[in-house]
Amino acid sequence: MTDNEEVTPLLASPSAPNKKPGTAFAWLLSRSPTTIFLTVVIMIATLGSGLTGLPTLAVVEDSICQRLHRADDQAAPDDRLCKSDDVQRELSFIMGFQSMMEAIPSLVLAVPYGLLADRVGRRPVLILSFVGMILGMSWMMLSMWLSYYGLPFWVMWLSAFWQVIGAGDAVMISMVYAMISDAEPAETRTDAFYLIIAGSLVAHLVAVPLSTLLMLKSPWIPLLGGLALVVFTCICLTFIPESFHPTGSTPTAQTADDQGNSASHSPIQKATNFLSRFIAEARDSISILHSPSTSALLLTFIIQGFTNRASGFMVQYLSKRFYWSISRAGLLVSIKNAVDLVLHIFILPACSRLLMSPHFRFNYDPYTKDLVLARVSIFLLAAGSLLIASPSLVMVTIGIIVFTLGAGFESLCRGLISDLVDPEHTARVYSLIGVIQASSTLSAGPAIAWLFGSGMQLGGGWIGLPYLATALLCCLAAIGVYVVKPTVSLRRTRDQT
């Protein structure tokens, strides 16, 4: 079966959600096959990557601790020594710099890969992203193991350069969202985003306690098991049909044109033509920024690197603040995963239906509904960050819950931008989002590490300085969301016509 034959039912299926299914199972079945398939494979990938998070932190912390505090008699250092300021400062620096290095390929290559996806399709680019991810994970694990034998920690940072293949997480996420945008109409697109996020959260909710349990025997069991699951996911992606084909051209015509070009143009001429097309398409992508609403929404993604890093930093923060083990801190942070799951499966879809229902006074259209929810979400992110900076365990726990209730902000903003651009520009605008997020991540890792180190030097409640800074950034992003005005979405207008 060809790609064109396989993609036909996918394009027809989005009409199903308009039937208002009466049960959650019927609602799930009403999603497009592309959305369901992506949800399953991303769940497997998230389970794999989720298994590696805590043991990676534990192995690096242990390796640093042994280098700094191992006694002359070769006895293992006391666990409390591993929570000392010098160990935690170096740990935050290593992991923060790692996140910065991983952002560089996305920053440099996200737009070219987005343009490539608009020309050859989303699936090949998505598979390339997973290949780069697998190679990077393998390099990182090898360097972590060799660090016990004296290998410098900076070698671990080189794992990021494998992500030149596929441009890393930013492009991978962008391709997933682009494929869903291709397969779902505007009225159900945000719900489809919620579904795939919820699937990831279910996997991560399982991954954290499972990883903690496996770490009791050895941290290398979840590390290697997680890598195997990501490899399996990459294999599964080869079976998903392509969701997008450029309009105005057929594969046959393109093949004939390519053959003609190969016969009549020299390599230099072909390179020049490719560069000219790339510049023209880049200019076309920049024209998207002429819309004030689109520009304002794109600017809100600047904070995503900081909120994502602040979320990922919680385990080390709690471990240091309350002198807990990595696994114990990870179990508390798993509350975040549970709340996140409830948010995307129940709270956000329920709020969406409430705001759009003609039986209530709101009766919003999909665009306005997403805008209202985005404004509430950014407020919750700011309030939660402030509470996490508190010295009280109770307040920190409440802060984690409040912070997590604002976690729909990114998908809501993506849905808003999807409504403001035409389908032909979806992949490249998502890649532009990836560039912005990569730029944010590039600075977020070292910034969070520096703020954490400064907070430890100041002492007392200042150890929560990274979350105070995150709260301030969320307040600035709120300005961008609140200046966006409700309007008629471009994509919804095209869907209706």
From TrEMBL:
Mind telling me which residue stretches traverse the membrane in this protein?
36-60, 125-148, 160-180, 192-214, 220-240, 372-389, 395-417, 429-452, 464-484
User: A Gene Ontology molecular-function term?
Assistant: transmembrane transporter activity
* Location relative to the cell: Membrane
**One GO cellular component term noted in the UniProt record for this chain:** membrane
Recorded hits in InterPro entries, A to Z, give: MFS, MFS_trans_sf
Q: How does it sit in the membrane?
A: Multi-pass membrane protein
CDD domains assigned to the protein according to its UniProt record, in alphabetical order: MFS
Question: What name does this protein carry?
Answer: Major facilitator superfamily (MFS) profile domain-containing protein
